[in-house]
Protein 1
Amino acid sequence: MWHDGREVAVKVQYPGAGEALTSDLKQIGRAARLFAGWIPGLDIKPLVAELQARVAEELDYSLEAAAQSRFAMAFEGDPDIVVPAVVAHTDTVLVSQWLESDRSLARLIADGTQEDRNHYGEVYVRFLFSGPARAGLLHADPHPGNFRILPDGRVGVVDYGAVARLPEGLPSIIGTLMTYAVADDYERVVAGLREQGFIKDSIDVSADELRDYLSPFIEPAMHERFQFSRGWMRTQFARINDPREPGYTTMLKVNLPPEFLLIHRVWLGGIGVLSQLGADAPFAAILEESLPGFASPS
């Protein structure tokens, strides 16, 4: 579509989207009440309330336009990232600068060279982790289809409906606890998680249990470079989803405070995309740049 002589992308909310969302959110609330007693460590009601609030925001294109504009300003002139400017918007229509692209990270997952997988995987995760410090926002939809490869080699990032508002940047406690974990000081990790509400007072989790549960996920931050792979990711999720494995029991003891919900989504989603790409990335260095409180083992 063209607007004022410019080619633009138009995002339009379909009629009845609000009513459909309201129905879906009610279903989420009912399911939460049903399953709340099955996971003793999880305080599910505030988590569902946070999810409902964030999902509802995705239908407000004025909020999305504001978030996209903040990212566009923060990344203006960046050598690797392009955020399309907002041309016009209403509550239900969003008009953005057109980005010329015929492939995305999803396409690279299917047929990209290893060199491209490494390069664009690094650009991708650097954008995700640097957003809070640069824009005060976390892009919270890490789907690879939202990351478009432009003809000049830069990455165009679209879809700002889901964001976490982090005006102070990523919480430093995440970096601090990761530093303890990398140093194998899981007694301090347990204490820190309790203090932040990740482990409720009524739940007993030992340092050894937490080490077995978390250390494989910490592994990428323990090396100068880490080779992500589908096999590695499958192994980690098998550990925590198989009731026969000790990681499954520990998972049921861990809470997720609502303010960390979207951070958790981006963290797992980002690592999942790196694993699908099979990217070799300097993950520890990226964390040291963007995650306050984190110090790499080197």
Protein 2
Amino acid sequence: MKKIIAALDGLKPSESTKQYAIELARINNAFLTGVFLDDFTYTSYNIYDVVTKDGANERDLEQFNREDSARRDRAGNVFGQACREAGIAYNIHHDNNIALQELVHESTYADLLVIDSSETFQQRPDKIPTRFIRDLLPDVHCPVLVVPQEFRPIEKLVFLYDGTPSSVYAIKMVSYLMHFPENIPAEVVSVKGFYEDLHLPDNRLMKEFMKRHFPQSSFVVLKGNAETGMTDYLKNQKQPMMVAMGAYGRSNISRWLKQSMGNVLMKELNTCIFIAHH
């Protein structure tokens, strides 16, 4: 992997995004760009409250804007200092236009995007997955690592597999982009109906493929409903893990690895989720 971008809100930067992005850049010897989305429509204060306040004037707005600008500059400085301490190559972009459009554009020139699952780029918090994340994922131009609000080093890999090219593509992207210790546990998890057999889809080909990419892989086939069965299984895992899936798109490419599954996992799991388009 050559270039990682980390999406950050300069008014309330995610410590988790910073830590995950720096750690990935360090272990992969990658270049890291902190993308601070300083959307001109987004401020720390409510403009309506200011302009309707008795005695408010243009100087008040200018003062608030100066304070916001200073906060954003401080956030960039803190990010840069952390990168220097970690010994990684980095850059900082301050993008001033609409946050979603800017981030989608930046993703065209990146190998991986790291973003906090709670990111909103607005004053008010939103339930996970946030509207910003839901709007971003179908249109982004590189794989995305959606990270939890608390940093925990990744100790296990879980690949969600349903036999489609999209689910295999996500595994390829993890293999191509990320370096992990050879002994890290890797698990391929699939869900089949109650009346289906317990063999993986394309069993022989899939196991041959995984042997070349993640030789220590194990395989789990669950029975029942894909969303509930998969979610319950993953919630019972004890190690900090990264769950990899494909087919988060506007069309239901996959049989069950689709947008609703991604939303459910982000909502229910406090873990990293790697999402790659096919």
Protein 3
Amino acid sequence: MTMRRALVSMASALCLFAAACGGARDDADRPGRGSVVSVAPVFEMTAAETGDYLAEWKYPVAGANGVRAHRVVYETVAADGTSTTASGLVVVPDTGVQRLRLVSYAHGTTVRRDEAPSADGETERARTVQFAAAGYAAVAPDYLGLGEGPGFHPYAHAPTEASASADLLLATRSLLADQGRDLDPNVLVTGFSQGAQAALALGRELNSGAIEGFAPAAVAAVSGAYAVQEVQAPAALDGRVEGRRAVLYLGYWITAMNRIYHLYDDPAEAFQQPYAQRVDGLFDGRHDLLAVSSGLPDTPQKLLTPQYLELARNPSGAALRAMADSDTVCDWTAAVPVRLFAASGDRSVPFENSLRCTKAVLGASAELIDLGDIDHGATVREALPRILDWFRKTQPPA
């Protein structure tokens, strides 16, 4: 690990788990990190209903049991270190097992807040349910600013992905204790796309012992943009990422990071007209993917100003800090097995992201699995059943 990355990693850890970024908490009378604010039932399914549901979503689980799902709102920390709340989905298997092993599943990119797992995000919900159907307690953080969380979503910001994921583990432990059940402290971690970045960020914190009462058991990540500076941003400009997907990624990332790192005073500094006057509004959490895509151009060269095209290629200042803070998710030495799944045919998140991850410190512990010439959305459908099978063989649910 380079000295710069080591310092960034240390600063991120202080920010996440001591709330040292952005000053002290100004509301110290609030409950602590991971405290449950509210719990609401989302759905309940019998074993037969669970089996039919997962078959419909093409995530079948042999011997599926019934499940009960809850939306949990809990205390966590914002990007500036102040207290906030987030929501997440907790799915509990309807079995007689008292001590449950936990799977944390981190979802992929969503632009509309009500498409988060605990809200109406059926696709990501089904991916979470498959783990509970196999007998695990399964959780899926919505991340900040999605679901019931206030404010805007800090898209692809690894520090808050990790903190929101970590605090949901604490909230889930409290929820299950109220139900007369408890959790095995060793957590199985997985995620897709944006969630792959989040999964490695959570795995890093578990591995370091930063989350009291929890440790990692295994980590499996699918098609993540782990190297924004070295791979993802350049690929968005040189054609390795398909044009509209590149525009979505860059527009979402720049507007999100501006709210944390103050990249610009006026959107017109970053975005060409007429997009500069509408881009912030498109990424407000209320527009769906179709609305966002139809409101933006088909190439990054039409979206970004020359200054920001150059900044994406050669970042400096606030843009470099934004990239560096999230580009450390592979810079840790895992004490548990790690599998990275990616596809050479992916036109959204290039395979080189995972190659770079295996060349980082994590590489000594990580196995890279090439899913072949398939596109981004197909990678999760191919990988998740394999991940569940791996989890069941190496860390059975009970």
Protein 4
Amino acid sequence: MRTSGLPVLDKLINDFSKLPGIGYKTAQRLALFILKSDPDYVSELADALLSVKENTRLCAQCFNISEHELCSVCADRRRDGGLLCVVEDVVDVMAIEDSHEFRGLYHVLGGVISPLSGTMPDDLHLKELAERVQANGVREVLLAINPSTEGEATMIYISRMLKDSNVRITRIASGVPLGSHLEFLDTATIGRAIQTRRDL
């Protein structure tokens, strides 16, 4: 392991390198930027990190991130409660919201079924999804799950789980290539996929 000769700086570099997509060189640049920054900025950054950890939670209804019991989407009475979009993670909610094409509510699974990774149906918010569909007058469930092998398996599982619930089950359509992730797509592509969804 490379070192700077300063243990305190090495620790910061090592901590930055644990972030997704951050290699050693980028971690080193970030650490040196912090080292050279104004103390007030560093203090504000540290406070922001602590605040986001201490003051956020999962929405009690959809499992999106929130500062309150309900997230801003679930608390918005203008949203269409009969249209439920099921996503893999909170970052997918952000991507779809940026497209401005969806006016329903969300349900965040917290992952996809992946036996090889040890993620089974009971590890996801699937039971809560079934309860929401039965209790809240949902008329359509839109599956906006990343089109990976695990994502496809999860969508099949959900469609079978909800087959007797008398709701329309759709999935996002073309425009989302196989193996891609919603967070990396442009808003026009996501919007087109929402508009051209089809029955599953």
